Each structure stands twice: as structure tokens, then as C-alpha cells.
């Protein structure tokens, strides 16, 4: 989480490496980490690339933890032309057809295979149901086409919401948490563990306390801090969330400013804690899968 240099979505990814370095990493058996965000409105205080910046920060942290455990990982430049249903009626919230995303993913998996990589871990940066189902479709297609070990790194609650079986070989399941991260994707109280803070009083799913905290930690210069301090919390429960999730004009009517949650309650400390925890949990699950598969090969 060093702040010495300008952090952008290419930081610490393959885009900053030479081909010689990438080639060597593939020969050394490095795994790939790839996030799937979207460009989407995030209220009056956060940039539209929030769902790209946050997962990239998480992957940088995950990569570091894996390296400490002897697992070399490269980060693929982020995917960011995704699917917006909820924010679909707001400006600067772009959507592509799911089949386009699936085909693009499939071509890139094929390129990774051509480079000699064998294992890809995919992460979501965006809670939209259709976006996440499409990531999973792309993974399925990638596995069929390349035979690589490709999986969706996710907590249980999101998989349940998507109807994906927890024992599917194309998922790498990790413990829930940092509470609000996966609460953000699911709003399910089961997404909160014992060791987390109590769930917030009202639902906080979009550009609210959790997401704003993550941005204060990973890209502070992009947060309009004066604005966010003055924003009132929304006071929504599960029924409001269902209405909001219908998307497009329903969501725009429900949250005219574009956020659902409590941005003013965000803090740098919470962001640091959430980022670290979410990276550790991803690293734990990845490490377990890598070791299991190594054993089954022996
Ligand atoms: Zn977001």
C-alpha cells in the first residue's frame, strides 16, 4: 500500500513488464490474477472507475502476500468494459452485451495459454448480478477452449446469489469478509463473519461507507472529500435493495445521486483494514488451490 508513486490501473500489472519478464514468469510457473470491473457512476464523490481501482488495489496486495508465501503471481491489466444493469440509466455507466464479454475473455485466455500460463484466478470488481454471471460464463468458455485451470475467486454469499454450486471446480471459494466488501455484493447478513464489525444499520452497497473507505485508502486523490463529507446516509432495507436492483430507471429513482449507503462514515483506517483482509482471504484460498492441485499432479 505504498504511496510513493502514482498508482494507476496498470500499476504492478503485465502492462508495466517487458515481454522477456513475462516469458520468464510463465516458464517459472507463475499464476495469473485478473479482475473484472466496470466503468460506472459512483455518486458525486467517487470516480467512475472505482470498480476498477479497488480490485486492482486488492490484487496488488494479494500478489504481495502470495510472494511472501513463495507463490509467484502476475496481474493481468484489468478488464473494464462490463455490464451495468443497476446504474444503466445514469451517465458514464457503460455496458456491453454479455456475449461480447465472454468472447473477449475467451480470446485472452487463449493468449495466456499460448504464452505458457496454466492457471488464472478471476476476481469481480462489481456487484451487478448479470456482470458476475457473465464472468462465470467467460471462465467456462475459457476452460472448455484452453483446458487451463481457470476459476472465479469469490465468497460463498455471492456464489449463492448467482446460483453457482460451491463445489464447482471453476470456483475458488474464500471466507467472507471484510464484511462490507462482500456485504456490498450481496447484502446478506451471512456475509459478515464473527471477527468483523457489526453489519451497518442500513444497507451499504454502492459508493457508500465500504467502497469510499477503500478508495480513501487506495486512490485518495480521486475522492472528492469535501463533497463526500456532506452526503447524507441512505436509510434502505432489503425491500429497497430489491427495488434498486431492478436497475435502470428504478435505481435512478431510488438513488438520484447515485450512491446507496453512508459515504460520510468512510475512513482511511477502515479502507486499510478491509483491503488487507480481503487480500489475505483471497491469498489463503489461492494458496490452498495451488497446493492441492500440485499434490494431485504428483
Ligand atoms: Zn462499485
Automatic annotation (TrEMBL):
Q: Which cofactor does it need?
A: Zn(2+)
Q: Fetch the SUPFAM superfamilies from UniProt.
A: Creatininase
A Pfam family cross-referenced in the UniProt record is Creatininase
Sorted alphabetically, the keyword list is: Hydrolase, Metal-binding, Zinc
Highest taxon above the source species: Bacteria
Q: Which family does it belong to?
A: Belongs to the creatininase superfamily.
Annotated protein name in UniProt? Creatininase
Natural source organism:
Neopusillimonas maritima
* Lineage per the UniProt record: Bacteria, Pseudomonadati, Pseudomonadota, Betaproteobacteria, Burkholderiales
Amino acid at each position: 500500500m505504498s504511496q510513493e508513486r502514482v498508482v494507476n490501473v496498470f500499476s504492478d500489472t503485465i502492462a508495466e513488464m517487458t515481454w522477456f519478464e513475462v516469458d520468464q514468469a510463465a516458464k517459472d510457473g507463475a499464476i495469473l490474477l485478473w479482475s473484472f470491473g466496470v466503468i460506472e457512476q459512483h455518486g458525486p464523490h467517487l470516480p467512475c472507475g472505482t470498480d476498477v481501482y479497488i480490485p486492482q488495489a486488492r490484487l496488488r496486495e494479494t500478489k504481495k502476500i502470495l510472494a511472501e508465501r513463495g507463490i509467484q503471481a502476475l496481474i493481468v491489466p484489468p478488464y473494464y468494459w462490463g455490464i451495468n444493469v443497476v446504474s444503466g440509466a445514469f451517465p458514464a455507466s457503460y455496458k456491453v452485451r454479455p456475449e461480447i464479454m465472454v468472447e473477449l475473455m475467451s480470446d485472452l485466455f487463449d493468449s495466456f495459454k499460448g504464452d505458457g500460463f496454466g492457471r488464472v484466478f478471476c476476481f469481480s470488481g462489481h456487484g451487478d448480478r448479470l456482470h458476475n454471471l457473465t464472468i462465470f460464463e467467460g471462465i467456462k468458455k475459457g476452460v472448455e477452449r484452453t483446458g487451463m485451470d481457470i476459476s472465479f475467486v469469490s465468497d460463498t454469499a455471492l456464489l449463492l446469489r448467482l446460483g453457482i454450486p460451491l463445489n464447482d471446480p471453476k470456483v475458488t471459494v474464500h471466507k467472507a469478509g471484510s464484511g462490507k466488501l462482500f456485504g456490498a455484493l450481496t447484502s446478506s447478513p451471512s456475509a459478515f463473519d464473527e471477527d468483523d464489525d457489526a453489519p451497518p444499520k442500513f444497507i451499504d452497497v454502492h459508493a457508500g461507507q465500504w467502497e469510499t473507505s477503500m478508495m480513501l485508502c487506495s486512490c485518495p486523490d480521486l475522492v472528492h472529500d469535501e463533497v463526500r463529507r456532506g452526503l447524507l446516509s441512505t436509510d434502505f432495507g432489503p425491500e429497497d435493495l430489491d427495488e434498486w436492483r431492478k436497475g435502470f430507471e428504478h435505481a435512478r429513482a431510488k438513488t438520484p445521486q447515485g450512491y446507496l449507503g453512508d459515504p460520510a462514515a468512510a475512513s482511511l483506517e477502515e479502507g486499510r483494514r478491509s483491503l488487507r483482509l480481503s487480500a489475505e482471504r483471497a491469498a489463503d484460498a489461492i494458496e490452498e488451490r495451488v497446493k492441492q492441485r500440485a499434490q494431485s499432479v504428483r
